[in-house]
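Backbone-to-sequence.
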C-alpha cells in the first residue's frame, strides 16, 4: 500500500508549522480525518487498545459536570482542588470551567467534519480537554510554551494519540525549518515529558473531579508523580 500524506492536508500542516499559535494543532487534528490513510487510523486504534485500562474507560463514556469556583473555594490548601483553583485563576481560565467540550465535539460531528474519527478516539479527545488542566497540577507543568510542550509529550508517552503526535510533528518542523535557536529548549521539554510519562502510572483514565478534596501529595504518591519536572 502506498502511504503518503494528503497534499491538501499538507498545506494546512505547513500553515500550523508557520503559525502554531494561530493555527494550532486543535484545528489540524480535525482537518486530518477527511483524508487520513485507513492504515494510520487502524494503527492508532491498535495502539489505543494496547493501553491498560483504556477499554473499560472508553466503554463507560464518563463526562463530569463542570466544576464551579464556589465548589473549589471549599477545597483545603494542599488538595488537588485548591491547586486547580489557583491554576485556573492564575491563567485566567475561568471560562474553561463551564465549557461544554462534549457539545463542541458533537457539533463538529454533526457537521460531518469528524466522520472518519473513530468513536473511542473522539471520546478520548473530548474527555482529554475536560481534564487537561488537572494534568498540569498533577505533573507540575506550567501553562507556558515549554510546559505545554512537556505535557504534550507526557500525553503521547501514555496515550500515543494522534493529537499529541501532531503536536510533536508541528513543533519539530517549526524549529527545524524556522526557529533553530529553540531546538535545545524544545527537546529538553519533550524529553522530560516523555520520560516522566513513561515512568509514572497512567493518569488519563481517572475521574479527577472526584478527587478535588484529596491531598495532592497523596495523589502524586499514588500515581508515581513525584519526579521533579524539569520544564515545570
Amino acid at each position: 500500500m502506498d502511504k503518503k500524506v494528503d497534499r491538501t492536508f499538507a498545506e494546512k500542516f505547513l500553515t500550523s508549522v508557520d503559525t502554531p499559535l494561530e493555527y494550532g494543532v486543535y484545528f489540524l487534528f480535525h482537518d486530518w480525518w477527511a483524508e487520513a490513510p485507513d492504515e494510520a487510523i487502524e494503527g492508532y486504534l491498535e495502539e489505543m487498545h494496547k493501553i491498560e485500562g483504556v477499554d473499560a474507560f472508553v466503554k463507560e463514556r464518563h463526562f463530569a459536570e463542570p466544576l464551579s469556583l464556589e465548589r473549589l473555594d471549599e477545597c483545603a490548601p494542599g488538595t488537588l482542588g485548591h491547586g486547580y483553583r489557583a491554576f485556573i485563576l492564575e491563567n485566567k481560565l475561568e471560562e474553561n470551567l463551564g465549557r461544554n467540550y462534549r457539545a463542541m465535539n458533537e457539533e463538529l460531528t454533526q457537521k460531518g467534519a469528524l466522520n472518519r474519527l473513530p468513536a473511542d478516539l473522539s471520546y478520548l479527545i473530548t474527555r482529554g480537554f475536560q481534564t487537561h488542566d488537572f494534568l498540569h497540577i498533577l505533573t507540575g507543568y506550567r501553562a507556558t510554551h515549554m510546559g505545554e510542550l512537556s505535557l504534550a509529550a507526557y500525553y503521547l508517552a501514555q496515550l500515543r494519540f494522534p493529537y499529541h503526535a501532531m503536536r510533536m510533528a508541528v513543533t519539530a518542523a517549526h524549529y527545524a525549518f524556522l526557529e533553530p535557536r529553540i531546538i535545545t529548549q524544545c527537546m529538553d521539554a519533550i524529553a522530560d515529558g516523555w520520560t516522566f510519562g513513561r515512568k509514572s502510572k497512567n493518569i488519563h483514565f481517572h475521574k479527577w473531579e472526584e478527587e478535588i478534596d484529596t491531598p495532592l501529595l497523596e495523589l502524586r504518591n499514588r500515581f508515581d508523580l513525584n519526579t521533579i519536572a524539569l520544564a515545570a
